[in-house]
Design a protein that fits this description.
Carboxylesterase/lipase family protein, elongated, mainly alpha
C-alpha cells in the first residue's frame, strides 16, 4: 500500500515500513503509480514499463 497510497508521514505510525526503506519506497512508488495509471487509461501495461523498477512481474499475455 505505501507504494500506491499515501506519504511517508501517513505511514509513520504503522510498523509496515521501516524508516530506512523510504528512499526505495519513493522510487518504486513512482514506478508503480505510473504503471497503474497507464493501465487504467489504456487497459494495457505500457511496452516501456520497467517491472524491475517497481518490483512487479508483468504477464503481457
Amino acid at each position: 500500500m505505501p507504494l500506491i497510497l499515501g506519504t511517508r508521514e501517513a505511514w509513520t505510525s504503522m510498523d509496515l515500513v521501516g524508516p530506512e526503506a523510504w528512499p526505495e519506497i519513493a522510487t518504486r512508488g513512482r514506478a508503480v503509480r505510473r504503471v497503474w495509471a497507464d493501465f487504467a487509461r489504456t487497459g494495457e501495461v505500457a511496452a516501456d514499463a520497467d517491472a524491475r523498477a517497481c518490483g512487479m512481474r508483468f504477464d503481457r499475455g
